[in-house]
Amino acid sequence: MNCVAGWCKSEAGEAVTIRPSILYFGTPVVLITTMNPDRTVNISPMSSAWALGDRVVLGCTASGQGIENLRREKECALNFPSPELWRNVERIARATGRRDVPAEKAAIGYEYVADKFALAGITQAPSETITTPRIAECPLQFEAELVEARPSNGSDGQPGFYIAETRVKRVHAHREIVVDGTNHVDPARWEPLLYVFRHYFGTGADLGKTFKAEC
Ligand SMILES: Cc1cc2nc3c(=O)[nH]c(=O)nc-3n(C[C@H](O)[C@H](O)[C@H](O)COP(=O)(O)O)c2cc1C
């Protein structure tokens, strides 16, 4: 720290201790589609997701309709929007597919919405290995089955959220983001929508590739 006449300036790279209210350091937005009990389709926007092998692991608050549907139906579609779709995502940010909106959500403006496709202005595409439809406008869509949903309890002993492990059964990609004649997604043409400390971002220019890159 440099201090001159009472003004202190941090050196670049110097770390300060902070206590942020959330830890969303920047992960892609996923629109999870699931089947409601009345066989309509719900969309749950989320961003706590990571992939390894054929698995995608999701962090879902226990109070959402999406996790309830996923635990009951044991399947979902994971739809990855591009940055141009951020306003469509934000249109359903305050929506829940749960008729009895939890009090803590109602207090910050959440409302029950039966048809999130209409509200978001997006359309369904039928899946091939699961009943749950995909979202046609998302350039990348995974059909998945639930392997396990592990509850993570809050301080009251009730599940605060679930860590849901899913297995991807089929991958669909818009032709424009696939390297012609291959199974590879072209990282120069596919851009995920990132959720970074509650702001939406696209990704910047390609900085380079790792030694395992296939294209
Ligand atoms: C961009 C974005 C990212 C979100 N990330 C998550 C997340 O990772 N996990 C989660 O449980 N909720 C997340 N939420 C909040 C859920 O979308 C919210 O709980 C919503 O009510 C879920 O819908 P549902 O109740 O119909 O399932 C996110 C919301 C937005 C808009």
- Counting DSSP E segments of at least 2 residues, the number of strands comes to 16
For this structure, what is the CATH homologous superfamily?
Electron Transport, Fmn-binding Protein, Chain A
How would you describe the shape? Answer: globular
CATH fold-level name: Pnp Oxidase, Chain A
- Helix fraction, binned, reads 10-25%
Fraction of residues in β-strands: 35-45%
Distance between the termini: 44 Å
What is the radius of gyration? 20 Å
> Order of helices and strands, N to C?
EEEEEEEHEHEHEHEEEEEE
On the 0 to 100 scale, the average pLDDT is: 93
Descriptive keywords:
three-stranded antiparallel β-sheet, globular, 4 helices, mainly beta, about 10% helix, binds flavin mononucleotide, about 220 residues, Pnp Oxidase, Chain A
How would you describe this protein?
Strand 15 and strand 16 form a beta hairpin. This protein has a single domain (21-200), classed as Pnp Oxidase, Chain A. The chain is built from four helices and 16 strands. By secondary structure, the chain is mostly beta strands. The strands form five sheets. A seven-stranded antiparallel β-sheet has the order 5-4-8-13-14-7-6, covered by helices on one side. The chain has a three-stranded antiparallel β-sheet with strand order 3-15-16, with no helix packed on it. Strands 1-2 form a two-stranded antiparallel sheet. The chain has helices at 65-73, 86-91, 103-106, 116-120, and strands at 2-4, 7-9, 27-28, 30-35, 41-46, 49-52, 55-61, 75-80, 95-96, 111-112, 124-125, 134-135, 140-153, 159-173, 194-196, 199-201. The N and C termini lie far apart (44 Å). The mean pLDDT is 93.
